[in-house]
């Protein structure tokens, strides 16, 4: 059963339009939720909206929104005031332009939605718009009013339907230079880079949502069940390793720790590779075997007289080995 629609209106492309409904694409309903209780009585605490000056309760029908001015006073706005700010995008999702999806930086992505036809008559026009975008491999950019705010949204074909992604405005996205300015610019040592690349490749896999779960929620439920049944709480996990004294040593230990545990992507190929000849050891593995005192200062092998080129760089050899 589809979730309740957040918005209903018309999807418009030039003179073509159709009735559509916007449904949330994600839900947090499965998360563990809590109520606030009184520690003394165990009774649930009730929140009540009261006047900040008189302390009297304010019923919902008497509540309005207020815009605070510099002098501390407010301009009050009721529902009838907001209705006067009606834009065309309040009821129409009008696609203004089409762009390649790769041009949109993911940092602008906000809430995702599913856009579906709202009646049988809308099916054909909906399919035409969807298939035209799929044929051109583009996504549409449109405007729509959601929760009394006009949003820029991305409209993209997704299987049999259309997905809508609300986008942040440029003014809402913070400058990355300000966030990253304290990061030093440095050239990573080649031997450290080889070890790190080896670790990355050993953990290579594919994005499978079934392999991820909310472990915090699972731990919360285990704690709740234990308290409900009068059992001691599950033991807390052992703390991880402390601060690393030697980055190189930490990299070497990571390579050793991962040597006996192939990544998910590699397991499927393990049977076929077993019959092949033993591969050459990578520079990262040789560095691990050499211990903490070995360094990667060996000179490159010179070209042999037979005309064969010198051996490839450590990073290229590592790629062949993996």
From TrEMBL:
Lineage: Bacteria, Pseudomonadati, Pseudomonadota, Alphaproteobacteria, Hyphomicrobiales
Recorded superkingdom: Bacteria
Family annotation (SUPFAM superfamilies): SPOC domain-like
Comp. bias (Basic residues): 313-322
UniProt similarity note: Belongs to the prokaryotic Ku family.
This protein's name: Non-homologous end joining protein Ku
Subunit structure: Homodimer. Interacts with LigD.
Residues annotated as domain Ku: 55-185
Task of the protein: With LigD forms a non-homologous end joining (NHEJ) DNA repair enzyme, which repairs dsDNA breaks with reduced fidelity. Binds linear dsDNA with 5'- and 3'- overhangs but not closed circular dsDNA nor ssDNA. Recruits and stimulates the ligase activity of LigD.
Basic and acidic residues biased stretches: 282-292
Keywords, sorted A to Z: DNA damage, DNA recombination, DNA repair, DNA-binding
Region annotation (Disordered) ranges: 256-322
SMART domains (alphabetical): Ku78
PANTHER family: NON-HOMOLOGOUS END JOINING PROTEIN KU (PTHR41251)
Pfam families membership: Ku (PF02735)
């Amino acid at each position: 059963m589809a979730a309740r629609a957040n918005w209903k209106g018309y999807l418009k492309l030039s003179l073509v339009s159709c009735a559509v409904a916007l449904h949330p694409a994600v839900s947090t309903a499965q998360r563990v939720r809590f109520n606030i209780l009184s520690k003394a009585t165990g009774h649930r605490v009730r929140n009540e909206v009261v006047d900040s000056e008189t302390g009297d309760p304010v019923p919902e029908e008497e509540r309005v929104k207020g815009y605070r001015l510099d002098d501390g006073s407010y301009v009050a706005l009721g529902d009838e005031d907001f209705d006067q700010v009606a834009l065309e995008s309040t009821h129409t999702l009008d696609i203004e332009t089409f762009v390649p999806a790769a041009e949109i930086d993911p940092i602008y992505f906000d809430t995702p939605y599913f856009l579906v036809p709202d009646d049988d008559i809308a099916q054909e026009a909906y399919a035409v718009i969807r298939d035209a975008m799929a044929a051109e491999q583009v996504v549409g950019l449109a405007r729509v009013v959601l929760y009394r705010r006009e949003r820029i949204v991305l409209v993209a074909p997704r299987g049999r339907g259309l997905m809508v992604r609300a986008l942040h405005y440029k003014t809402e996205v913070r400058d990355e230079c300000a966030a990253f300015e304290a990061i030093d610019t440095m050239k990573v040592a080649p031997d450290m880079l080889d070890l790190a690349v080896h670790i990355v490749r050993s953990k290579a896999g594919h994005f499978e949502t079934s392999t991820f779960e909310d472990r915090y929620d699972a731990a919360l439920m285990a704690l709740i069940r234990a308290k409900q049944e009068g059992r001691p709480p599950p033991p807390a996990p052992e703390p991880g390793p402390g601060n690393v004294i030697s980055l190189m040593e930490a990299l070497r230990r990571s390579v050793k720790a991962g040597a006996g545990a192939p990544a998910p992507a590699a397991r499927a190929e393990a049977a076929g590779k077993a019959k092949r000849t033993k591969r050459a050891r990578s520079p990262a593995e040789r560095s691990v075997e050499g211990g903490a005192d070995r360094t990667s200062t060996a000179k490159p092998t010179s070209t042999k007289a037979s005309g064969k080129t010198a051996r490839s760089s450590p990073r290229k050899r590592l790629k062949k080995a993996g």
